[in-house]
């Protein structure tokens, strides 16, 4: 579909009931929710748990959605808030988990696959090592393709602060790659 090119503007069909709308939200934004949760929590399974909680919350609050923002902004705002709750929780602070950042990409040759995977892992690792405030802005801007204004609304932070965090994040990434 042409309208799916910019997923932040996509709307579910009006004839969908609540269950169909939830399924549509999960298909359309499920990977985005997991990616954003992973950037906060750095653990794949925990990110998947948060994604489940996010969609349960979406189902519960679906009738309260006022169309003041896109569905993507609404869902990712719920995701960010759930992640912040997890980060504050006792269990997260007192349990140690391990995970790695997986990346599935298709290419033509084995060599290019390996090079892309290595490059992607290096970039992902450097992004994940950024402080949370810089990391979340980098992920939302570059990977989720949110505008500065959308990130400002999502994080409840002034747009100039978002610009500053983006600039600082880029500088830190540049410095880390120059050091490699």
Automatic annotation (TrEMBL):
A GO term for molecular function: DNA binding
PANTHER family assigned: RNA POLYMERASE ECF-TYPE SIGMA FACTO (PTHR43133), RNA POLYMERASE SIGMA FACTOR SIGV (PTHR43133:SF60)
GO biological process: DNA-templated transcription initiation
Family note: Belongs to the sigma-70 factor family. ECF subfamily.
Domain spans labelled RNA polymerase sigma-70 region: 25-88
Keyword Transmembrane helix: no
Protein name: Sigma-70 family RNA polymerase sigma factor
Entry coiled-coil feature ranges: none
The RNA polymerase sigma factor 70 region 4 type domain, residue ranges: 121-173
Swiss-Prot/TrEMBL keywords: Sigma factor, Transcription, Transcription regulation
The species this protein was found in: Neobacillus novalis
NCBIfam families attached to this UniProt entry: sigma70-ECF
């Amino acid at each position: 579909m042409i309208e799916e090119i910019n997923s932040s503007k996509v709307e579910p069909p009006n004839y969908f009931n609540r269950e169909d709308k939830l399924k549509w939200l999960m298909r359309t934004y499920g990977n985005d929710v997991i990616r954003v949760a992973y950037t906060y929590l750095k653990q794949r399974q925990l990110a998947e748990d948060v994604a489940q909680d996010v969609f349960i919350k979406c189902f519960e609050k679906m009738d309260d959605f006022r169309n003041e923002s896109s569905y993507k902004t609404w869902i990712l705002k719920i995701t960010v808030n759930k992640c912040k709750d997890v980060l504050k929780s006792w269990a997260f602070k007192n349990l140690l988990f391990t995970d790695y950042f997986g990346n599935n990409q298709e290419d033509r040759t084995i060599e290019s696959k390996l090079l892309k995977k290595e490059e992607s892992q290096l970039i992902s690792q450097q992004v994940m090592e950024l402080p949370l405030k810089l990391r979340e802005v980098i992920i939302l801007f570059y990977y989720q393709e949110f505008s500065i204004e959308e990130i400002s609304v999502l994080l409840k932070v002034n747009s100039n602060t978002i610009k500053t965090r983006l600039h600082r994040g880029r500088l830190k990434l540049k410095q880390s790659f120059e050091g490699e």
